[in-house]
Amino acid sequence: LGRKPDGSLWRIGVQDPEQDRGAYAIIVEMEDTSLVTSGPYERFLVLEGETYHHILDTTTGYPVESDFTSASIITHSSLLADALSTSVYALGYEKGMALINSFEDVEALFFTADHQILQSEGLKRGDVEFTVTNQQYRIVQ
């Protein structure tokens, strides 16, 4: 899509995984790029007091237990971003970051239950600009 008609960058809100829809944890500024987020907070079922989300562990068939409350991927392909956001959510930090680092032009933001934002190397370098809008979160270098 390039830039907005006025020439400015698009501002994309990343949902705070612990808040109601529309409450953002960060705002990312970008052009010609896709941002996709996966997490358990949108699609889930409560059955007999237990919450079951939609990201399943392929070895058990049950919802995966993750290091993250959400995982966001920034890259030029929405299809790749969607596949990677779900994959790294399920893989956890070590394996997920290794997977992200195996790609060129793919960046990741991982949100944790203790309000940390973990970022890939390109984001640490400032390749993509973002602003934390919920001050409960802190960026981990």
Written account of the structure:
With 141 residues, the chain is of the alpha+beta class. It has a single domain (10-140), classed as T-fold. The chain is built from three helices and ten strands. The strands form three sheets. Strands 3-6-7-8-10 form a five-stranded mixed sheet. A three-stranded antiparallel sheet has the order 1-2-9, with no helix packed on it. Strands 4-5 form a two-stranded antiparallel ribbon. A hairpin with a 2-residue loop joins strand 4 and strand 5. Helix 1 (78-91) packs antiparallel against helix 2. The mean pLDDT is 90.
In short:
The protein is an alpha+beta fold and 141 residues long. It contains three helices and ten strands; from the N terminus they run E-E-E-E-E-E-H-H-E-E-H-E-E. The strands form three sheets. It has a five-stranded mixed sheet.
